Amino acid sequence: MSRNIFRLKSKWLVLASGSGAVFGLYHYFKPDETECQASINPYFQASTKWDHNWDKRDVSSLIKPVKHESNSSEEKQVSEKKAKLTPTAARHIFLVRHGQYEDWKNDDKDRKLTPLGRQQAAILGQRLKSLNFTYSRLIQSTMTRAIETSNIICKYLPTVPVETSDLLCEGNPIPSEPPIGTWREEYKYYEDGPRIEAAFRKYFHRAPASQKSDSYEIVVCHANVIRYFICRLLQVPPEAWLRFSLYHCSITWVVIGPSGNVCVFSVGDSGFMPQDKLTRA
Fold it and tell me: What are the angstrom distances between the C-alpha of 253 and each of 97, 155, 204, 281?
């Protein structure tokens, strides 16, 4: 896959159905020799500008500014440092929701996958394997349903290193707008929001300059967390996270380019899941 993921044309355009807002260019992209450019409207003004340093890793923020702009020696050193620190690879991240689980139980240790949830995880594992990427790692939430889903996935990807993080646990990131869904006490957002934001800041950023080829990672976590991540990645208001829904064991595929630009290939893709296996709750 070309490193310049923003000059791509799709081989297939898939519109995934479901009760949630699921969309995206998915499955396979190949480089195009021509670049598609939008027409310029001189009367258009963006309501908000893209923050190119959203991950605080833009190369300009990694180098101490030159004290004297007229000093050609210092300017040359800065240019050399920028060249060394400029990323060239993209990061592909597959955000996976866990399988259906026994949500009527109280303790997390008892909230295990249902038989259907285990089937969903197996189908998901087969799907991830069939994509034929060399995954660098799988990161899982510490919650029982995420760990069980990961264990099943790893049967199909046995050589992928596994990491665990409690930052990825399910929670309530921020009050939604409009206020829909189940009412939550304010303190729950106060407790969960900073943790989920910390997970975003830890795992979502452009590749370092030391990474020479595109990477592929799997993150097994939860619907609220994934939806919040997508809003943050696209720099849309994070309170929009409840405006779409995700099926169990669906795949959300995002790419962070070397420049920090973000491309969402799919959100909540479940087209590989048989219809009688689709569940959301």
Answer: 12, 21, 13, 22
Q: Is 91 helix (H, G, I), strand (E, B) or coil?
A: strand
pLDDT of residue 86: 92
Could you tell me if residue 24 is left (phi over 0), alpha (psi between -120 and 50 degrees) or otherwise beta?
left
Domain 91-277 is in which class?
alpha beta
How far is residue 139's CA from residue 168's CA, in Å, rounded to a whole number?
9
* HSE of 62, CA atoms in CB hemisphere, 13 A: 17
Q: What is the mean pLDDT of the chain?
A: 86
Confidence of residue 77 (pLDDT cuts 50, 70, 90): confident
Q: Give bridge partners of residue 266 from the DSSP assignment.
A: 253
Of 141, 256, 268, 150, the C-alpha closest to 204 is 256
Helices (H) and strands (E) in the chain, counts: 5, 8
Q: Mean pLDDT throughout 240-246?
A: 94
Sign of CA dihedral 27, 205, 267, 118: positive
Best CA proximity match to 142, nearest among 121, 163, 115, 158: 163
Rounded-to-10 torsion of CA 112, 113, 114, 118: -150
State pTM to two decimals.
Answer: 0.83
Q: How far apart are the first and last CA of the chain?
A: 35
Q: Which two tokens stand for residue 188?
A: 């729950």
> Which region, left, alpha or beta, applies to residue 57 given φ > 0 means left and ψ of -120 to 50 means alpha?
alpha
Interaxial angle between packed helices 144-156 and 115-130, expressed in degrees from 0 to 180 and rounded to the nearest 10 = 40
